[in-house]
Amino acid sequence: MLEIADHAARRNQAPQRSKSEREGASRGVPETVAAIDVRHEGQHILGARINREAPRAPLRPVAMSLGPGTSELTPTLVDPPRMPARVDTVRHQFDRRAARFAQHDFIVREVGGRLIERLQVIRLDPRRIVDVGCGAGGTQAALLERFPQAHWLGLDISLAMLARVAPPSALSRLLPWRAPRAHLACAEAAALPLAEGSADLVFSNLMLHWQPQPHTVFPEWLRVLRVDGLLLFSCFGPDTLKELRRAYAAAGIAARPMPFVDMHDFGDMMVGAGFATPVMDAETIRLTYASPQALLREAAALGGNPRDDRAAGLVSGQRARALFAALDEMRDREGRIALSFEIAYGHAWKPQPRLRGQSTVPLDHVRAQLRRS
Prior knowledge:
By secondary structure, the chain is α/β, with parallel strands linked by helices. The chain has helices at 7-11, 19-26, 87-101, 106-117, 140-146, 159-162, 170-174, 217-224, 242-250, 263-273, 292-301, 317-328, 363-372; strands spanning 37-40, 43-46, 128-132, 151-156, 182-186, 199-205, 225-236, 276-289, 337-349. 31% of the residues lie in helices and 19% in strands. Strand 3 (128-132), helix 5 (140-146) and strand 4 form a beta-alpha-beta unit. The radius of gyration is 22 Å and the shape is globular. Mean pLDDT is 77; it is low at 1-78.
């Protein structure tokens, strides 16, 4: 049985909760905590309370070549990408959108299903799954169905999104032993309240592109994975919303969209963090809409634009009419407007720790030396 407790409540009086949190608890929504204490099969996993004001530890820059990446955000990992946004802004925007998110989350559900399908060809039997950026828990049921013996921990920075996670069924509440092994915690992706080596699978669906400093996330995910544990994630790529960017340009609107990192650069970040055998690939999913207004509503509901230098206020008046006209010009033969989502998928493993004095030579280098000798 998985047990979660808030250490602040143990040390002192339980912290006061907001009205929305109290109402969520009354509806049966699992309570979210900022620090967790998990006991499972005699093993104690202790997580410390997150300090959002300062990082856990400064990262040492790692110099490496990047390969064929196209992102302008990552010229080298000595100067890693720092998107012009803050985690608190992302949190606030998802809190505001939580109530209507389910009406516009088709792409999130679709990609989540495709990401889980990839587990069919990977030999893995996880006991502890950490779902980072779980939102309203859209992948919880599918993951627990695939791994019925696993314990699922959903983490998200937005309390409002976590409050949307479906509560246990009436039967599960009457028969606690039939309840799914699922719990929630409010935490940031780069500062997880988990002990080292406490997860078998770190799973993240369409979250990483909202992280202003994505290079800080991979070392943290590596830390909480056990040796031979798996990281599996998806995120938006640079061509996401390209039609919308073209429409803004055609309408003469100086938009500052959220930049999305190229998948090759994410691969390099995994290598720099210490992951083994990282694999990245991508596909494009195109959704179509009946009107410019429907397209813009969905793009906004999926997270909006958390950039610090984004334009203040909404586009209105003549500029809005010009934007609608530019989108109307993009209608296909069936009269619908397409919007592209470039989806990058990545996975990697936590390797065995290297022994002191041990070095690794790529097999290609050995073959090249043998050919020259």
